[in-house]
Write a structure and sequence with these properties.
globular, 3-stranded antiparallel β-sheet, 5-stranded parallel β-sheet, single chain, alpha/beta
Length: 231
């Protein structure tokens, strides 16, 4: 049974990552968290005090950046490691959220991380989410999904995530952050966020989590069946 590549793009707070993880788990695929990779890079640059306008320093420092994913044996959840250290919690902070879109739009950073992501997907059987997966990273993915949702609903979801981790942030601050990220991501020069012409749009505003997961799984099974009939 041949496997496919599933690319999930969309706005922040639509449930891309949680959906992608669940889809990968149901299909027995590998999940690649591109957002976590950019967040880890952002945390690395912040910790190193790197001047984001100094392209030569960025290119030099990014070679010292090692990102990997490991499954937590106690929770069964995948966690992000930066140069061997578990950074799953700090990369989700509001500080990193405030800078990640700025880091993501830097050409040199994107080129390096996209190259690493494409290498991860060569064997197929992967699910990856982000903002340019179906347009840049895996333009020939067999299944492309574009997720969207109402801004305030997205903000409330993000607020709950942060509250569950003990972080208190006002809904107004989160709405402002998401709105700014939408603007930057959609209008950046390098790999802007937009729906690929062959992507299937899913509005998650009023969907239960299992509903959106099952929609993607059903779409994937349809693609897998079609793909295997043609080879």
């Amino acid at each position: 049974m041949q496997k496919i590549v599933i690319a999930i793009d969309g706005y922040s707070g639509c449930g891309k990552s949680s959906t992608a993880k669940a889809v990968a788990n149901k299909l027995g695929y590998t999940y690649i968290d591109s957002g976590a990779m950019y967040r880890a890079a952002t945390l690395f640059f912040l910790n190193q005090g790197v001047d984001l306008t100094n392209k030569e320093e960025l290119i030099r420092q990014i070679q010292n950046l090692q990102i990997s994913f490991k499954k937590n044996p106690h929770t069964g959840k995948q966690e992000t490691y930066l140069n061997g250290i578990n950074v799953e919690e700090p990369i989700r902070s509001m500080e990193v959220s405030s800078f990640v879109s700025e880091v993501s739009k830097i050409k040199e950073v994107r080129e390096e991380l996209v190259s690493r992501q494409q290498l991860m997907g060569e064997q197929k059987g992967v699910v990856m989410d982000g903002r340019d997966i179906g347009t840049v990273v895996f333009p020939y993915a067999e299944l492309k999904v574009f997720m969207t949702a109402d801004l305030e609903i997205r903000a409330k979801r993000r607020q709950k995530e942060l509250q569950d981790k003990g972080q208190k942030v006002t809904l107004e601050d989160i709405i402002r952050n998401l709105s700014e990220r939408d603007e930057i991501d959609s209008n950046r020069k390098e790999s802007p966020l937009y729906r690929a012409s062959d992507a299937i749009e899913i509005d998650t505003s009023f969907l239960e989590f299992e509903e959106q997961v099952n929609q993607v799984v059903d779409l994937a099974k349809g693609k897998i069946g079609h793909y295997n009939k043609t080879i």
